[in-house]
Design goal:
This protein has 358 residues and is α+β, with helices and mostly antiparallel strands. The chain has a 5-stranded mixed beta sheet with strand order 10-11-14-16-15, sandwiched between helices.
């Protein structure tokens, strides 16, 4: 079975299904049943199904501003440019107007991504054929230089919410591009480690939301446990403590900080150690949240196991709280991954395993 940095590609697909629940819809069943040897081929398969489904509903359109010279008035008259046309003895009016168009940033990103995947050696020929058929419906849409995309400015609302998963897949593809120096074209690199880290974090959170909603899983902020009379003006300079996942059961709380590295341990003096910054971070979260020193707040560093030999799995009693370090082995059948995540809940809260119906 093929993997990407130690995580089975099939499991990456399952991670995506939790991060983006639209992939649980029936039209993606063929993708789920398929075996992939390359992660970019999997992305191509998801886009093929997703964009085909979007074409049935109609591509998203939005109003774009136009400015051109026309024989009749349309929209707003540009007086200065119209006067220049008159000087040139041209019987035209320079107009500014809004036009409902498919040639918007969302569809341009889709076309660019599909074009790059078609030119990739890691995408199978039959998949490329599917994408070429889809691109026939994008003839009026321009491509965009991936460097020019402002991902954080994409806004989703009711009319384009179906694009949210598609845009994330496009981001995974385009963010890993390497530009060649000879022809100025792009080629695909491996799935970037920081993107995998974000996906791993979202997967764990959404898994618990889906199967353990009774624990109120969320990514919450922890307030600093400041002494009474602390200067309010200085508080704004303190860093924000944002947890990856917080689970609560009764008066018990578990803070989970997910980590994805090529190596989950650091080496000091030829000995394997937990990353110190990670340990300091989770300890700080726990101690500040447990301001009353109840000992009912615990923390867990959850590493994704890749190809490393050492898999940390232990707990430390620290100042009345428990800090754990565990490894989630992603190189197994997904049922085993699910079992590992469920056991974290069972052992952390000392309750009978309660998994919500799928």
């Amino acid at each position: 079975m093929v993997s990407d940095k130690g995580i089975l590609i099939k499991n990456i697909y399952y991670m995506l299904t939790y991060a983006f629940r639209v992939l649980r819809q029936s039209n993606y069943e063929e993708v789920e049943a398929e075996e992939f040897s390359e992660i970019q081929d999997m992305f191509a398969a998801i886009l093929s199904k997703g964009v085909s489904q979007q074409l049935k509903q109609g591509l998203y359109k939005e109003y774009l501003s136009r400015s051109e010279s026309l024989p009749v008035l349309r929209g707003k008259l540009d007086f200065d440019n119209t006067m220049q046309l008159k000087v040139q003895r041209k019987q035209l009016l320079h107009c500014e107007y809004d036009e409902l168009s498919e040639n918007n940033i969302f569809n341009r990103i889709l076309k660019t991504t599909m074009t790059i995947l078609i030119n990739s050696s890691t995408v199978r020929s039959e998949r490329k054929k599917e994408l070429r058929k889809i691109l026939l419906f994008f003839h009026s849409i321009e491509e965009i230089d991936p460097i020019m995309i402002k991902w954080n400015r994409l806004k989703f609302q009711k009319n384009n919410q179906n694009y949210q998963m598609l845009m994330n897949i496009c981001f995974f593809v385009l963010d890993g591009l390497l530009q060649t120096t000879d022809k100025g074209t792009y080629r695909l690199a491996e799935f970037k480690e920081d993107n995998m880290a974000k996906l791993f974090e979202r997967f764990v959170l959404e898994y618990y939301r889906y199967h353990h909603g009774h624990l109120n899983p969320n990514a919450s902020q922890v307030r600093w446990d400041l002494d009474e009379g602390a200067d309010d003006r200085a508080i704004r300079f303190l860093p924000t403590m944002q947890t990856d996942i917080t689970l609560r059961y009764g008066d018990q709380t578990l803070i989970i900080d997910t980590k994805y590295y090529g190596k989950s341990m650091q080496t000091q003096y030829e000995k394997e150690k937990v990353h110190s910054n990670n340990l300091y971070q989770i300890f700080t979260y726990v101690k500040n949240l447990d301001a009353r020193r109840t000992g009912k707040v615990s923390g867990l560093l959850l590493y994704a196991k890749t190809r490393e030999r050492i898999t940390p799995d232990f707990e430390f009693p620290m100042g009345g709280n428990t800090i754990g370090v565990k490894t989630l082995d992603m190189n197994h059948d997904f049922s085993m991954i699910s079992n590992q995540l469920d056991r974290i809940v069972e052992s952390s809260f000392e309750i009978g395993l309660k998994v919500e119906d799928v």
